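In response to the reviewer comment on reproducibility (Comment 2.3), we provide here a single inverse folding case reported in full, input and output, so that an independent group could reproduce the run without further information from us. The structure tokens appear first.
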């Protein structure tokens, strides 16, 4: 079944055609253009505009951004690989969306009314010492830097898998573009590029799913193959809280609920978005809209994984030595089955980079907010600056 499939060990030089570069480049150019547009529109504005969008944002784009901030290329590559090699038990992570109403009605109104730019300002208010605030803010900046390194590496690896781009060129490209449009455009640029990038990400996953379903004729056939090989069906779900077992339903739900409540309850990235909303009702809606978007995205990654498994049933590319790691299965499928359609490999790489760019830009903007508010704003020379100059310093920090 793998006869005629591209030999991974020989590299993929030349498989990325000009339509692919055009599709991929268009996504990067559009992201940069959004940043330039908001840089021009918000020039000579203060930090309130740069970091919080003038507190005038509405629910739909912010809900997309809230989701995109925590959806990276790690999910795009890892979700289908999880379903392919281990089954769709991880699908029950969708149950963690039960944490969002809790965040919406308990945490969000509290922070919204405080009108904070840095969530760590609350620690100073609570404990009466700036040191606690600075230490917590510093830990956040370091944690985000480490996380962003992983987020950048994942799409760079995918691009190196399907083109002759050196890995280091890909890393620098995504890092620079995300930093530039975030640094010059501020919160509004981050929000609207998140909308664009999540849209591209969804299109990429839908293209993979549609191609697979067209090959097999229906989702039912794909499902039958998955059930026969214990990748789907009720028999794959295991119960009981067993910390040392790879996955059980309670393990996934409990762990993801705690993580989701932390993400949407009190992290800098989300609290900064709450503060950017034009009203409390918009803030409520932004969180509620995350739920259907998240479930749709997770479902697409799981279905994509089942499509990949049905395609390579009995002839696993990893076992055959055509790929070296599990998370290369989706890039391999794209070049094997989708490369005959000009532009689709480029769409896939754009999809993967979109997941990374949205996460990086949100992190950069949040890091700039924390660094300015928790460190530089307390320095007398910075405090005496005009609002416009303060915004320029914050942009420099973001860069």
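Designed residues, in position order:
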């Amino acid at each position: 079944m793998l006869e005629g499939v591209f030999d991974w060990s020989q590299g993929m030089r030349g498989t990325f055609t000009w339509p692919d570069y055009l599709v991929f480049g268009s996504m990067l150019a559009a992201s940069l253009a959004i940043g330039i547009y908001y840089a021009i529109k918000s020039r000579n504005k203060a930090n309130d505009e740069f970091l919080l969008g003038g507190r005038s944002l509405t629910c739909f784009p912010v809900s997309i951004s809230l989701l995109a901030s925590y959806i990276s290329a790690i999910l795009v590559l890892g979700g289908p690989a999880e379903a392919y090699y281990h089954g769709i038990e991880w699908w029950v992570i969708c149950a963690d969306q039960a944490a969002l109403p809790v965040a919406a009605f308990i945490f969000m109104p509290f922070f919204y009314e405080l009108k904070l730019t840095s969530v760590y300002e609350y620690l100073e208010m609570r404990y009466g010492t700036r040191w606690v605030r600075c230490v917590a803010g510093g830990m956040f900046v370091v944690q985000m830097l480490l996380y962003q390194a992983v987020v950048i590496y994942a799409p760079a690896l995918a691009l190196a898998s399907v083109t002759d781009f050196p890995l280091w060129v890909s890393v620098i490209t995504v890092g620079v573009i995300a930093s530039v449009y975030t640094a010059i455009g501020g919160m509004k640029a981050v929000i609207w590029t998140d909308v664009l990038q999540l849209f591209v990400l969804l299109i990429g996953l839908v293209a993979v799913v549609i191609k697979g379903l067209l090959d097999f004729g229906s989702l039912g056939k794909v499902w039958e193959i998955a059930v026969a090989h214990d990748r789907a069906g009720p028999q794959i779900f295991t119960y009981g809280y067993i910390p040392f077992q790879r996955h059980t339903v309670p393990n996934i739900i409990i762990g993801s609920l705690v993580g989701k409540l932390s993400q949407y309850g009190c992290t800098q990235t989300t609290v900064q978005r709450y503060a950017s909303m034009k009203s409390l009702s918009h803030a409520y809606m932004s969180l509620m809209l995350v739920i259907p978007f998240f479930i749709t995205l997770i479902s697409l990654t799981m279905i994509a994984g089942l499509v990949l498994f049905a395609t390579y049933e009995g002839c696993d590319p990893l076992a055959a030595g055509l790929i070296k790691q599990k998370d290369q299965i989706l890039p391999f499928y794209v070049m094997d089955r989708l490369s005959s359609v000009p532009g689709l490999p480029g769409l896939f790489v754009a999809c993967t980079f979109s997941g990374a760019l949205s996460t990086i830009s949100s992190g950069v903007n949040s890091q700039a907010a924390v660094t300015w508010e928790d460190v530089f704003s307390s320095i007398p020379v910075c405090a005496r600056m005009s609002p416009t100059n303060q915004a320029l310093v914050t942009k420099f920090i973001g860069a």
